[in-house]
């Protein structure tokens, strides 16, 4: 029979979230609810149970009742299924999971004409206690899952990497004849069909164990009626991570799929069953995921044990006695943070000052869309979230905040921004109002979530919001929990949209420990920063303060966009299930973001450092001012706008409000008296004299009141408290303050309107997700509603500007505000919109930062350029952290594979290893090259082999003597040239050369003390910016290249080892760089052409020169170990050479080659820069002297004496003090020309810029004369 209209079975099954049906609550009719009715099918089941009981009591007298004739292939199976296992016991009932509501049993067989039971049996069935049944079933699931882990691992090990098999009609695990098998028919859902399977269970193998061993997961813990293929559940789990489709979608899709394939699910009467799988699928999906979590925990415990073993093995013997220090080293973050973002928390060196940006950047924000309906109810606890903070911890923080706020504020409280500005920020942001109710409390019990993410948008922790508004306890709880997992010296910068308000709260009240607040700094996210007061932005805007790079704090918005599809599912789930869904989805999103870290660094390098840095440098050049002058003007601007005088208008307005209101009342009274006098004087009656006498008395009273107002104004001591305003007209000050307040209001309204415009334009070109028709119309209506008020405010402000011009006196020296355009498109481009109205007089000369627009343009470019340079340093540090974590994690996984006793876990640990090996190709960036990761992989394998008791394998590689190709050399004997896939950005325009940093370059805290006494200190060097005495010029004419046939198709060239130089391989793109006169030379061209110059010049004193490659000084930057420096530099015998030629690449200048020639006997450095710049040489000279000191110490340790005395003072002279290069690509050619002059025994070359193309062609022809590879 068709389902009755209006019931749940009559509702259509739809994809996605489906339609929402709700009924109005109304009182029930007692006459209907108190009537006893017969439930269809209940009497039949009861009669069958009585017959079964009679059979058991008296087997000889039992008579088998006839079975009805089945009307479909599956009807008999469905009847037997209901008759065998359907029961009223709580253990046998499949209680709904937290995702779904309980509905009628789809397996129930309806019988219309059932015989009546005996009178002794009650007709009324007791009401089922679903809460108790659910609690009982959840307890059974928790007891069952630990016993299924081994079976799951056994099944996974048996089927991993193999195609799916078929399920048999009868399955059992019992292999003995002593057990009595109990046969149960289970409905099994597969990928392409469903079938009934006879499952045999006994005392040695339960029903659930048998199902799991055959790849089926039960829908109930003890007596399931349905089982689902674990591969199908795994597919839905992976699909849910991307689409977040509710279980309704899977149940409806399976039912449709089965029906289309000819597998119809019908009841006893042959009619289709509506929605037969949803309830059982929901329970199976939920508890299968909990089983996966249990397996992952076991794997994590094994790998963590290996991490601890490796950490203990690397500690000095003195520290091995302290187990706690070995497992929790004070110089590293907790493993939970390192595993979530190794780029942020994988460092081993902390303590960077907050003024320089701190050690870690995190962002926090709230989202009130992820709320939960009260009507959805709750469920028993079944999952321990790994991302959500406990409610008790958050509430404890809230109680502490309430307790501390009742106490007086700290006397030593001093905020970098005055309270007036922060008060205005607090009033302008809804998030600052912790008592504002964001959602209906009677409908929603959980109103949202608050998240904490790292700099790479990877989620770290969440706090569930269950109170009205965005109270500060959630952000403070997240920050407090983060600091509990960090080293005691780690410093943190927190991005928050109201970071200024939260920073003031923590500084005024003793909420967090001083040890935390001293290492904590706040900043506003860039998307919210421009809604704050300008003085607040000077301290909290990440684009205006130092050390924060290009961190924007907008990652929370990007994270919420990944959670949009989860909103609908959360609201109809139980409270515990909502937390479970968010937590598991967060783990999947975090895993995906971790894999994307390499691409994140590449995007930030390209779109951030290169593009934005280039545009900023162009702005600085367009301003026409030097960088030093721009920095000085920016410092003057900050000092002026952060001073107390900048906040005087707000306090002045409060003091003048009373006087202004009294003045306006007296003005209106005066007008009324004048009107009364005119009326009385024109009165023709004889009472005019008496009226005039009374009026004169009122006028005298009015004059006395005016005198009192003037006295009140004088008592305010405005000119004494604000001497800068002395002599300024009162009315002028009044209008100026009104204009200032109105300008602030206009700025806020205009920015909000422009944001709404951006919202409408976000889908242009398909770049972003469109708003949708409804939201688009709402945004347009909001714009149309707010636009008239904004235009009215602009017109009023312009009228104030006109009044100020009329009242203005040049002696006051107060800058007048400029009128604003009334056309919004012009207002959007108007630079004066964000400028405050200047209140105080401008004494003396007007500052350049206030008067000159070019200065302001240059300051903006300078700030952006500084942020890009800071971002470049951040990215380099993060790339190092990734390499370090990759090697440590791979070593731990390899050690786990060799030491674990559980062979069933080996397959899953191998999957972890495969995932790590796949990360190598994803994380290769210009800052972390493939050789570094390859070296990490080799060292990890060697370390794991040693700790497991094995012998590390020694790999050998053949070296061809006739044609030595660097790629065939062992990486330990020579610093390798980058592979072809890492040389795309290796030219001089690359922002960094860290791509060629090998893994054995250690940070300063990792350099071992290999020798007693340590390396010598860096000597003192004095830079004298004048030409050296007796400077010689190489007048050798430009060498002529021998004629060589240029091939039509270029091929790679190999220069064999000669004159003490190793072989060099020129790829085709390197040769094309030499061929083009406008290309910047890369490091391959520089390092490869110097041996060619040596071979062509053939100097008689060749034994005096030591040539250092472009990679050698970088090793000093990265504090390479002494063994590494000796291994890669001993080939040039530097200890017996008098002249060192050191090639330097300046990555911070957008890619620029310079040269340093060190004369060891003369203790003199000759510096060559084709641009003639002076300011960048200080750092380069310091690096060169550090190289000298390190190499002298290494040579002494290897029993080689150097001719240099690095303990004495050295002098550095420039070879060029004016610009030789006028383009952006000849720096490398200039360096090679100077090297050629040095080899000939001179200091500088006589070539001019017009001769460089011929010199470059000479080098190109010499390369072509080398043999092809």
Give a quick precis of the structure.
By secondary structure, the protein is α/β, with parallel strands linked by helices.
Description:
This protein is of the alpha/beta class and 1269 residues long. The strands form six sheets. Strands 13-21-20-19-18-17 form a six-stranded mixed beta sheet, with helices on both faces. A five-stranded mixed beta sheet has the order 1-3-2-5-4. Helix 6 (230-243) crosses helix 8.
Key descriptive features of the protein:
1269 residues; alpha/beta; six-stranded mixed β-sheet; five-stranded mixed β-sheet; 40 helices; 22 strands
Structural class designation: alpha/beta
Could you give the distance between the termini? Answer: 83 Å
Q: Which descriptor suits the 3D outline?
A: flat
Low-confidence stretches: 61-123, 318-327, 954-1016
Report on the biggest sheet.
6 strands, mixed
Please give the count of helices: 40
**If you average the pLDDT, what whole number results?**
77
The tally of strands reads 22
Reconstruct the topology from this structure.
Blueprint: H1 30-33, H2 42-57, H3 75-85, H4 130-159, E1 170-172, E2 182-189, E3 194-201, H5 207-213, E4 216-218, E5 226-229, H6 230-243, H7 247-260, H8 278-314, H9 323-327, H10 335-340, H11 342-345, E6 360-367, E7 372-373, H12 391-405, H13 419-428, E8 444-446, E9 448-454, E10 459-465, H14 472-483, E11 492-495, H15 499-508, H16 514-517, E12 520-523, H17 526-529, H18 534-540, H19 555-562, H20 567-571, H21 575-595, H22 597-623, H23 627-641, H24 648-681, H25 688-715, H26 718-721, H27 730-760, H28 773-807, H29 824-829, H30 848-851, H31 853-899, H32 906-922, H33 930-947, E13 1021-1023, E14 1033-1034, E15 1053-1055, E16 1064-1066, H34 1068-1075, H35 1083-1097, E17 1105-1108, H36 1112-1117, H37 1122-1129, E18 1139-1146, E19 1152-1159, E20 1164-1168, H38 1177-1197, E21 1210-1214, H39 1227-1239, E22 1244-1245, H40 1252-1264
Parallel strand pairs: 1-3, 2-5, 6-11, 11-12, 13-21, 14-22, 17-18, 20-21
Antiparallel strand pairs: 2-3, 4-5, 6-9, 7-8, 9-10, 15-16, 18-19, 19-20
């Amino acid at each position: 029979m068709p389902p009755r209209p209006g019931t749940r079975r009559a509702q259509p099954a739809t994809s996605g979230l489906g339609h929402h049906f709700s009924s109005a609550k109304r009182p029930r009719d007692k006459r209907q609810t108190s009537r006893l009715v017969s439930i269809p099918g209940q009497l039949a089941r009861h009669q069958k149970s009585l017959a079964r009981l009679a059979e058991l009591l008296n087997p000889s007298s039992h008579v088998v009742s006839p079975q009805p004739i089945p009307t479909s292939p599956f009807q008999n199976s469905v009847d037997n299924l209901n008759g065998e296992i359907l029961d009223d016991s709580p253990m046998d009932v499949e209680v709904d999971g937290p995702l779904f509501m309980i509905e009628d049993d789809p397996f129930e067989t309806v019988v219309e004409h059932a015989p009546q039971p005996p009178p002794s049996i009650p007709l009324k069935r007791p009401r089922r206690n679903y809460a108790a049944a659910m609690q009982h079933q959840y307890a059974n699931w928790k007891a069952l899952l630990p016993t299924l882990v081994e079976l799951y691992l056994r099944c996974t090990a048996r089927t991993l990497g193999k195609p799916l098999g078929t399920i048999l009609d009868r399955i059992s695990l019992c292999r003995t004849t002593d057990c009595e098998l109990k046969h149960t028919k289970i409905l099994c859902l597969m990928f392409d069909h469903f079938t009934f399977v006879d499952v045999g269970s006994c005392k040695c193998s339960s029903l659930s164990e048998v199902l799991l061993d055959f790849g089926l997961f039960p829908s109930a813990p003890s007596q399931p009626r349905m089982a689902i293929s674990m591969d199908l559940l795994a597919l839905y789990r992976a699909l849910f991570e991307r689409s977040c489709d509710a279980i309704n979608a899977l149940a409806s899709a399976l039912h449709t799929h089965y029906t289309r394939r000819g597998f119809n699910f019908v009841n006893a009467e042959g009619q289709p069953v509506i929605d037969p799988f949803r309830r059982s699928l929901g329970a199976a999906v939920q508890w299968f995921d909990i089983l996966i979590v249990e397996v992952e925990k076991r794997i994590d415990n094994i790998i963590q044990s290996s991490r601890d073993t490796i950490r203990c093995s690397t500690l000095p013997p003195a520290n091995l006695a302290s187990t706690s220090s070995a497992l929790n080293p004070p110089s590293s973050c907790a493993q939970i943070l390192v595993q979530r973002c190794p780029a942020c928390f994988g460092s081993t060196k902390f303590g960077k000052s907050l003024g320089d940006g701190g050690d870690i950047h995190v962002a926090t924000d709230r989202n009130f869309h992820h709320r939960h309906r009260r009507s959805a109810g709750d469920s028993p606890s079944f999952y321990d979230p790994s991302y959500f903070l406990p409610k008790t911890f958050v509430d404890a923080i809230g109680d502490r905040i309430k307790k501390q706020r009742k106490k007086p504020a700290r006397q030593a409280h001093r905020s970098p921004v005055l309270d007036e500005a922060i008060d205005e920020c607090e009033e302008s942001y809804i998030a600052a109002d912790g008592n504002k109710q964001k959602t209906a409390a009677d409908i929603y019990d959980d109103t949202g979530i608050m998240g904490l993410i790292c700099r790479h948008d990877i989620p770290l922790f969440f706090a569930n919001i269950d109170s009205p508004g965005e109270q500060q306890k959630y952000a403070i709880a997240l920050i407090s929990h983060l600091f509990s997992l960090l080293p005691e010296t780690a410093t943190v910068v927190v991005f928050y949209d109201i970071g200024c308000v939260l920073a003031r709260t923590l500084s005024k009240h003793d909420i967090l420990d001083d040890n935390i607040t001293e290492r904590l700094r706040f900043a506003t996210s860039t998307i919210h920063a421009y809604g704050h007061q300008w003085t607040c932005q000077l301290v909290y805007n990440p684009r205006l303060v130092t050390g924060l790079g290009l961190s924007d704090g907008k990652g929370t918005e990007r994270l919420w966009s990944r959670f949009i599809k989860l909103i609908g599912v959360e609201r109809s789930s139980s409270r515990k299930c909502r937390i479970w869904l968010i937590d598991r989805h967060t783990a999947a999103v975090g895993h995906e973001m971790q894999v994307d870290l390499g691409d994140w660094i590449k995007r930030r390098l390209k779109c951030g450092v290169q593009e934005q840095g280039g545009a900023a440098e162009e702005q600085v050049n367009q301003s026409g001012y030097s960088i030093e002058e721009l920095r000085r003007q920016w410092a003057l601007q900050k000092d002026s706008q952060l001073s107390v005088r900048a906040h005087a208008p707000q306090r002045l307005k409060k003091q003048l409000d009373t006087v202004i209101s009294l003045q306006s009342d007296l003005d209106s009274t005066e007008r009324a008296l004048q009107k009364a006098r005119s009326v009385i004087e024109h009165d023709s009656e004889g009472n005019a004299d008496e009226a005039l006498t009374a009026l004169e008395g009122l006028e005298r009273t009015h004059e006395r009141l005016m005198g009192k107002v003037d006295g009140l104004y004088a008592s305010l001591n405005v000119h004494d408290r604000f001497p800068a305003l002395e002599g300024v007209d009162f009315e002028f000050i009044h209008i100026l303050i009104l204009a200032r307040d109105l300008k602030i209001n206009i700025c806020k309204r205009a920015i909000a309107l422009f944001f709404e415009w951006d919202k409408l334009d976000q889908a242009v070109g398909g770049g972003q997700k469109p708003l949708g028709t409804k939201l688009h119309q709402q945004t347009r209506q909001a714009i149309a509603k707010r636009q008239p008020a904004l235009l009215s405010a602009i017109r009023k402000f312009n009228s104030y500007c006109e009044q100020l011009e009329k009242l203005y006196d040049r002696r006051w020296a107060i800058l007048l505000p400029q009128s604003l355009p009334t056309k919004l498109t012009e207002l959007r481009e108007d630079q004066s919109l964000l400028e405050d109205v200047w209140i105080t007089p401008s004494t003396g000369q007007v500052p350049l930062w206030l008067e000159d627009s070019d200065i302001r343009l240059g300051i903006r470019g300078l700030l952006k350029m500084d942020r890009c340079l800071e971002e470049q340093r951040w990215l380099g540090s993060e790339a190092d952290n990734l390499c370090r974590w990759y090697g440590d994690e791979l070593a731990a996984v390899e050690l786990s594979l060799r030491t674990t006793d559980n062979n069933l876990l080996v397959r899953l640990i191998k999957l972890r290893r495969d995932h790590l090996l796949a990360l190598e190709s994803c994380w290769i960036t210009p800052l972390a090259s493939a050789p570094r990761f390859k070296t990490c992989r080799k060292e990890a394998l060697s370390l794991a082999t040693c700790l497991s008791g094995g012998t590390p394998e020694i790999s050998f590689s053949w070296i061809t003597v006739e044609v030595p190709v660097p790629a065939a050399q062992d990486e330990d004997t020579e610093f390798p040239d980058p592979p072809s896939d890492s040389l795309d950005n290796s030219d001089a325009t690359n922002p960094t050369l860290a791509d060629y940093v090998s893994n054995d370059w250690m940070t300063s805290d990792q350099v071992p003390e290999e020798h007693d006494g340590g390396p010598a200190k860096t000597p003192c060097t004095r830079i004298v910016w004048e030409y050296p005495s007796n400077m010689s010029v190489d007048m050798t004419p430009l060498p002529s290249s021998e004629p060589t046939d240029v091939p039509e198709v270029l091929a790679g060239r190999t220069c064999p080892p000669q004159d003490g130089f190793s072989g060099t391989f020129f790829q085709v793109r390197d040769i094309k760089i030499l061929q083009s006169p406008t290309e910047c030379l890369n490091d391959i061209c520089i390092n490869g052409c110097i041996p060619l110059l040596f071979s062509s010049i053939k100097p008689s004193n060749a034994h005096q020169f030591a040539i250092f490659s472009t990679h050698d000084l970088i090793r000093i930057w990265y504090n390479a170990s002494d063994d590494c420096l000796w291994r890669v530099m001993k080939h040039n015998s530097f200890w017996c050479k008098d002249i060192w030629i050191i090639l330097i690449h300046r990555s911070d200048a957008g890619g620029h080659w310079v040269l340093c020639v060190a004369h060891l006997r003369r203790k003199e450095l000759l510096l060559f820069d084709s641009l003639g710049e002076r300011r960048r040489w200080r750092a380069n000279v310091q690096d060169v002297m550090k190289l000298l000191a390190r190499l002298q110490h290494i040579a002494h340790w290897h029993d080689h004496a150097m001719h240099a005395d690095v303990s004495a003072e050295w002098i550095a002279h420039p070879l060029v003090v004016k610009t030789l290069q006028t383009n952006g690509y000849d720096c490398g050619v200039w360096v090679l020309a100077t090297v050629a002059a040095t080899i000939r025994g001179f200091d500088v070359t006589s070539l001019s810029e017009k001769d460089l193309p011929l010199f470059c062609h000479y080098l190109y022809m010499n390369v072509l004369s080398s043999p092809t590879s």
